[in-house]
């Protein structure tokens, strides 16, 4: 069976396992049972391939090791490399069940994903489709995301391991893998990696979009929760007594610049996103996302939130206002040093050898590598090939999918060659 067919078949097997994570899962990791199903399926594949030190933790983190296989008499030290991919798919209020199918030799026209429900992906709304005329595209029936974020990467890594274990002519150093849950809801899985089981010199995530994309710069990310305790009263006797927490939440939100929000920013422009308000007669809770590529500006945004909380307290001293700020992940670029930059260089070297044009982006988001890099393990990111993540119009060009796998294999080859 050729690699293309192997990749597609394995990808279909993985996306058939519903494994959405849940943003309201509380402190439980994984946040959903489906992620356990996905972890156990991958675990069985690793066991079949003969990997060592396979371990599925209480947090649904699956780790394993493929011991080095080097030529006889080879004495150079080959760095231990890791690959981290996430097991969950995003929940955007679409079906957790994925029905993928392939559009062969795409003709450049609008794609009818679901005739019964009249779900059509048009080239007007999605001009990126036109770049893939003549390619085979994996799409959904329009009722779900496809899940190439990140099951294309899981497929990539498992297939690379299968190739290495079946072909003794392919040499490599120690390879460690980590498959983690709950990336989509705050990188909670990578924060539960037991790094004694992932003792690598550097690592890679495979968790961004189109062919050629490279990411080693991400947001610094934090979350905020402002809880406003008002004073409830019956309207008949409310004058001078009632302190309305809902109106105070609105007043608090209006203290921020409306132009520094996700819908008004791009590139390396950061923001504070007042993401949700939950309120009743006595309490209101405002949840915030804080993002910026620049660490100083990120800290300044957190300081602004603190200042606005204090302003709110002065506006209505009878209310009790509480603030909770949490750092979620850091910018990978802040962890780059002269010593660990080689992990990034290998990506560009591999692309050059494979004839891929790099598209380096400062990601307006984060990867598991954003957290892992804070643990002194440089972890840049390269493409899966998927497009339109987190959408019913997600699609995966098969040629790009194959190139992502070839990147993984080329990286391992170059690491040995340059030892």
Automatic annotation (TrEMBL):
Catalysis: reaction(s): Release of the N-terminal residue from a tripeptide
Enzyme type, top EC level: hydrolase
Active-site residues per Swiss-Prot or TrEMBL entry: 88, 183 (proton acceptor)
Superkingdom of this protein's organism: Bacteria
Positions of Zn(2+) 2 binding: 149, 184, 390
The entry's keywords: Aminopeptidase, Hydrolase, Metal-binding, Metalloprotease, Protease, Zinc
Protein name: Peptidase T
Organism field: Acidaminococcus intestini (strain RyC-MR95)
């Amino acid at each position: 069976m050729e690699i293309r067919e192997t990749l597609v078949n394995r990808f279909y097997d993985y996306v058939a396992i519903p494994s959405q994570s849940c943003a309201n899962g509380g402190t439980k990791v994984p946040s959903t049972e489906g992620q356990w199903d996905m972890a156990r399926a991958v675990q069985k594949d690793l066991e079949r391939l003969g990997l060592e030190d396979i371990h599925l933790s209480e947090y649904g983190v699956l780790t394993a090791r493929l011991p080095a296989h080097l030529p006889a008499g080879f004495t150079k030290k080959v760095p231990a490399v890791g690959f981290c991919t996430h097991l969950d798919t995003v929940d955007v209020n679409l079906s957790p069940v994925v029905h993928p199918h392939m559009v062969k030799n795409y003709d450049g026209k609008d794609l009818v994903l679901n005739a019964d429900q009249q779900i059509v992906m048009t080239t007007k709304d999605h001009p990126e489709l036109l770049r893939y005329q003549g390619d085979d595209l994996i799409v959904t029936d329009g009722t779900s995301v496809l899940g190439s974020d990140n099951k294309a990467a899981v497929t990539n890594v498992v297939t690379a391991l299968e190739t290495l274990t079946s072909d003794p002519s392919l040499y490599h150093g120690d390879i460690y893998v980590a498959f983690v849950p709950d990336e989509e809801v705050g990188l909670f899985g990578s924060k539960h990696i037991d790094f004694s089981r992932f003792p690598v010199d550097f690592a890679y995530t495979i968790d961004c979009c189109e062919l050629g994309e490279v990411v080693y710069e991400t947001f610094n990310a934090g979350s905020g929760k402002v809880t406003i305790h008002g004073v409830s009263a019956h309207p008949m006797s409310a004058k001078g007594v009632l302190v309305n927490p809902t109106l105070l939440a609105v007043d608090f939100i209006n203290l921020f610049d409306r132009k520094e929000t996700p819908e008004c920013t791009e590139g390396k422009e950061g923001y504070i996103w007042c993401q949700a308000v939950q309120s009743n007669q006595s309490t209101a809770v405002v949840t915030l996302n804080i993002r910026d590529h620049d660490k100083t500006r990120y800290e300044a945004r957190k300081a602004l939130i603190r200042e606005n909380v204090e302003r709110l307290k002065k506006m209505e001293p009878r209310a009790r206002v509480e603030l909770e700020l949490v750092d979620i992940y850091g910018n990978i670029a802040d962890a780059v040093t002269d010593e660990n930059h080689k992990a990034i260089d290998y990506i560009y070297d591999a692309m050059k050898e494979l004839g891929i044009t790099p598209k380096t982006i400062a990601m307006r988001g984060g990867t598991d590598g954003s957290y892992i890099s804070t643990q002194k393990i440089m972890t840049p990111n390269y493409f899966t090939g998927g497009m339109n993540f987190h959408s019913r119009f997600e699609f995966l060009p098969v040629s790009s999918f194959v190139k992502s796998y070839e990147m993984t294999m080329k990286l391992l080859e170059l690491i040995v060659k340059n030892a």
